[in-house]
Amino acid sequence: xxxxxxxxxxxxxxxxxxxxxxxxxxxxxxxxxxxxxxxxxxxxxxxxxxxxxxxxxxxxxxxxxxxxxxxxxxxxxxxxxxxxxxxxxxxxxxxxxxxxxxxxxxxxxxxxxxxxxxxxxxxxxxxxxxxxxxxxxxxxxxxxxxxxxxxxxxxxxxxxxxxxxxxxxxxxxxxxxxxxxxxxxxxxxxxxxxxxxxxxxxxxxxxxxxxxxxxxxxxxxxxxxxxxxxxxxxxxxxxxxxxxxxxxxxxxxxxxxxxxxxxxxxxxxxxxxxxxxxxxxxxxxxxxxxxxxxxxxxxx
Length: 300
Ligand SMILES: [Zn+2]
Fold this sequence. Notes:
Elements: H1 7-21, E1 67-68, E2 82-87, H2 97-101, E3 103-105, E4 110-112, H3 126-143, E5 147-150, H4 162-171, E6 176-183, E7 194-198, E8 202-203, E9 206-207, H5 212-230, E10 244-247, H6 251-254, E11 260-267, H7 271-277, H8 280-299
Parallel strand pairs: 2-5, 2-6, 6-11, 7-10
Antiparallel strand pairs: 1-5, 3-4, 7-11, 8-9
Helix pairs in contact: 3-8, 5-8
The structure holds zinc ion.
């Protein structure tokens, strides 16, 4: 994405898409032309999916209240708004294989509780990245007056499972939920961010139909602001240049009853993307992009 010769062309396509899709308001099934693929990115480590949304089928008895900050600004553009930030995976998952491999009910099917996530080739873990970006995003949103809850804050040995991650957003009656991730495609040259939107799913305990349209608007705004803040182009391997993907297999989306998207900030297995993802300045820009997109969505 850093290649100067590549970015302008990609941005041109991006801006064209923005112009065409800005008021698309796809209230239908969420599978517009901007979503050519619902397949999971290939995981370098052979995981089922770097996103591995999984959640416990039976009530675990564990708290679902998340980790709410005590800082509560009384003013700002997001005053009165509740945002849940979900740092994908957990650094401790690798040490709790049995627990995170437990199958949980995600409404339409059963999946693992959680996954370890991916990492850069030199060992910067996705779970470490997601927690760092989540902290930055939380701080920005709180500065703007929002009440922010994290689904985990390095305060658990593993997880939470994906069903609990969804439940935390639901029980908070969040105005928006953003799950922070980075991808792990090993194919050469795969770069760029993408935002995953919930497909219209109805089955078992899952019914995303009421949140599909609002989630798409949220995702479109985050994608647009990510481009503005980071200067990075949307994914060159998912979403056909739109930076948007639609999936029906992620428990964290399927079980959500509030508007929710996943943000895959880049591809950790690509050297150029990895350099960005490891850079604190870039992570701050990415957090700003997400905060701007959320703010535009909730207040725009
Ligand atoms: Zn992930």
